[in-house]
Design a protein that fits this description.
There is one protein chain. The protein is an alpha+beta fold. It has a single domain, classed as OB fold (Dihydrolipoamide Acetyltransferase, E2P), CATH 2.40.50. It contains four helices and seven strands. It has a five-stranded mixed beta barrel, surrounded by four helices. The chain has a two-stranded antiparallel ribbon with strand order 1-2. A hairpin with a 6-residue loop joins strand 1 and strand 2. 24% of the residues are buried.
């Protein structure tokens, strides 16, 4: 029964992602691996320009221009049906501790192949409701604390997830931020 529920949830999420795309006529984003490859290509041209007599450094202006152009090109494109592993969640706005919204960090690296202790290849998903997060981490008493939750597994991940959302930016390390996202547990 649980497997059927998960299958239906994933199917619903994927269908919602397709509906989201058609209701918001935005271009689909390339797969995450392609975005990462593009950023790595841009950053391979990076040459640190040191200021004489100071430990500070500047980025190569041509590389930064290319990175900004890439961000402009990918901004507002829709990531559809991406899959990853929920790593971290925190209240969306620390200034409003009673907020019902959370930001999530999803790692795009398979836990068994991860070598980066910072979980590398991160997707930041903005403003996910508390009840959605509670369903992802299988936690019924999420309102008061996390002590009754299933907790992260041995590799530090809470759950495998599938998600769809709009890209707001990509940084130098190919970390991506999404808004207007929908997310569900994946098998």
């Amino acid at each position: 029964m649980k497997r059927r529920w998960l299958f239906l949830t994933v199917l619903l999420l994927f269908s919602a992602g397709i509906a989201f795309y058609f209701l918001h006529p935005k271009e689909p984003a390339p797969p995450y691996a392609e975005i990462k490859q593009s950023i790595e290509h841009i950053m391979s041209k990076w040459d640190v320009i040191n200021e004489p007599g100071t430990p500070d450094f500047k980025f190569d202006p041509e590389v930064m221009k290319e990175l900004h152009s890439y961000n402009d090109a990918i901004h507002e494109k829709v990531a559809i049906g991406w899959r990853g592993w929920l790593v971290v969640f925190y209240q969306e706005d620390f200034a409003w501790p009673g907020s019902d919204y959370y930001d999530l960090t999803v790692s795009m690296v398979e836990p068994s192949t991860r070598t980066d202790p910072t979980f590398g290849d991160r997707i930041r998903i903005r403003e996910i409701r508390r009840d959605v997060l509670a369903s992802l981490i299988q936690c019924e008493d999420f309102q008061s604390n996390l002590t009754n939750c299933s907790g992260p597994d041995a590799s530090g991940f809470w759950a495998r997830v599938i998600f769809t959302g709009t890209i707001t930016w990509v940084d130098l390390g190919a970390d991506v931020e999404l808004k207007d996202a929908i997310i569900a547990q994946d098998e």
